[in-house]
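[Structure tokenization] protein backbone as discrete codes

[Encoding] learned vocabulary of local backbone shapes

[Begin record] amino acids and matching fold tokens:

___
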Amino acid sequence: NTEGSYTCSCKHGYAVSKADPNKCKSTDLCKQLLPCQQICDNTPGGYICSCKPGYAVSTTDATKCEDINECIHRPCEQVCTNLPGSYECSCAPGYAICPHSHDGLQCHDIDECKNNPCEQTCTNTVGSYQCSCESGYVVSPSDPTKCDDVNECLDKENPPCHQTCTNTKGSYECSCRDGYEPNTCDPYTCRDINECERKPCEHSCTNTRGSFTCSCLPGYICRTDDSTKCQSNHIVTPLIPVPAVYYWREDVTYEERFHRSSYFLARTGLPANPFLRGITNPKHHHNYILDNTVYK
């Protein structure tokens, strides 16, 4: 009430109508006050605050919104990550979101072997994979996707070869020392070669382990320059001195005795030799030996 008149006023949330000052109309408090953090809805004489999906009105302040942790309800098959106002599903290592999943929440195993992660052999497992190696190799201790060569020749308890072992990539080779050859039925072992079957000696051959020895018949000895050959063991008697006489030695054949080219001129001053079998000279065809003395 005023002097000679009156004025009308309105409660909170209302305002005097411009068209009729006796009336009140609801005001847009959401526009005037911006009271809500996210969503504001006007009501007669007031307003109500609400929140976007993924948020909820704070229990301590009705104008504020708090993030909802959807992961508490385990919406994902494997891994859930809460985000402001939302969440995200992912998969553990070795898995991926199933492309045929209608909600994108399911995971399926990844076949890592399709990408050839292993140097040699790859075996897919649930959520992972395993590398292995071919015979002669082992998985590298420094890199499980790589393979290291196994040196089989270092096995002292169970050596793979009988004599000589040579390591190769992923395997090994056996060989034999000189005088041996691989067994036909078991190439990892060696057998002695009987070199005497090849007749390497001129006279007699004796096979030994890994080698052979040559020997000669009686009256012969092995040559010093070639032990497989033999030479006469006959001791050549020095030339027998006969004054002005030609003669032949024991190693001269009967036919050669009548050829002067087979005779040797002797010196004087030495006695005759019992091995001297015949004597001649240019003037006489025959001479004789008696009691180690040469007679013309």
